[in-house]
Write a structure and sequence with these properties.
globular, 4-stranded mixed sheet, 42% helix, Conserved hypothetical protein from pyrococcus furiosus pfu- 392566-001, ParB domain, 5 helices, alpha+beta
């Protein structure tokens, strides 16, 4: 399956050749992977999978890899990055998810943004924002 790519990347890679980092502590639910796959199918690739030149392992994008495999992508965009040490690589792996968790959601701004999306395109599937229908209500 060919998906449009809108993000910067170093190269395109067969997702079956990528190696997840076994130290990654994040686990993705089937629901999360299905939602991510739907977003990638609908909007194309907006973020590459980050690969370490040092170890050859995925640093960021384990969920994107699972989504790509689920929908049968032939290739995925990969951003290869240099890491000076294993510690630096693992710290980036952890920080990528942890920093997003620390953000605070402004409920009023979220409501305004969801309303704006709906008004600009009434047929747009709001679940592609990552929020479930009951959360949107």
């Amino acid at each position: 399956m060919s998906i449009p790519i809108y993000c910067a990347h170093t190269r395109l890679v067969d997702p079956n050749t990528l190696k997840p980092n076994p130290a990654n502590p994040n686990r993705h639910s089937a629901h999360q992977i299905q939602l991510l796959a739907s977003i990638i199918q609908e909007q194309g690739w907006r973020n590459p999978i980050t690969l370490s030149k040092r170890s050859g392992l995925i640093v960021r994008g384990h969920g994107r890899l699972e989504a790509a495999l689920l929908i049968g992508c032939d290739v995925v965009p990969v951003d290869e990055q240099d890491y000076a040490s294993e510690a630096e690589e693992l710290a980036d792996l952890l920080a990528d998810n942890r920093l997003a968790e620390l953000a605070e959601l402004d409920e009023d701004e979220l409501k305004r943004l969801l309303k704006s999306i709906q008004e600009s395109d009434p047929a747009f599937d709001l679940e592609l924002t990552g929020f479930a229908e009951d959360e949107i209500r």
